[in-house]
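Q: What structure does this chain adopt?
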Amino acid sequence: MISKKTLALCATVGVVLSGFAVASPATADPVSNSYSIAGSDTLEDVVNALANGTSITGSGVRTVVNGGTIGSFDATGSPYITAKSGGVRFGRPNGSGDGVKALSRSIDGAAYTSGTVGSPVNVVITDQVDIARSSSAGTANAAGELLYVPFGRDAIAYAYKGTATGIDAMTTAQMKSLYECSPGFQIGGVTLTPIIPQAGSGTRKDFLIKIGSTETLMKTIAEGGCVVEGQEHDATTLTAESVMPMAVSRWVAMNTGASYDKRGTGTLGSLVSGVLPVTGTGTTMVPNAAYYADTTWGRDTYLVVENARVDSANAKYDAGLFALVDATQPQSLANSSGIVSRSGAVKKKFGFLAPTAGLTAFRVAKTA
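A:
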């Protein structure tokens, strides 16, 4: 947990986070002059908006530190990125797992290889990644090198394309049978095609856990099974009578115009009986708090940092990095206030609600 002692120290060194009315969309590959962020596709657009500046709430909001901009890198694009001026070129972290892995290698100096096809391999990336975006939680470890800081509440539903009876409201058990390629399994007499996000995706990890399956039980086409692998949250890849996990936050943002539109001709289905994931349509669409509160399909998302760098008692303490993940700062990445001039209001436009009440930061061991 981040202490009040650290808050006081942050204030004395004069770390300031300010707002600017910037309306331009996020760019894929910035070069940071301070801190760099990579990882989850689920969080990339909202974090990009905060890093680059946005007026989507009607008020200018931008997260900066001492006038220095931060760089948030998309999960997809070219096979490689250069995170900092004069830094090395390394494989683009695609997804939560890849982002946390890159942060871990940035901390320990071991060679990093991205999961992105065609990326450079075995690159030393010491001090190149400061924050990882993660749509899934790690396993708490009191001695862990990483700190998972709550970002916002999200939920998982699914996008689908087709007319099979019941495809719009499938159950957890049905999803388990579908993704484990159970012989003869159908919905409304129709054989569906299951699509799963790429390896390293936090949404893929969470989805499999929530349906009670595993990477071993789920068989992709490459493994002789029926599951198609694709880029997460890209519903344009849906084929006739198919389904794919979808972060509700991304679906909301694609409808409101806050995020790039990758809905295609897909529709959002519900995994909570009698509860729709969203309310409203188009630009008025918002998260349905009842769906997000579901203990199975709702989920909290995180910003991941090196614990030592946000611990005021540690020699590695970095007041600027701490300010970026200090939820009490009005325009920090971790703020959840609904006031239009604060980061939390931007997050809601992108489909995120405040994290679960009482949820605090926790430590996790770095990725091997």
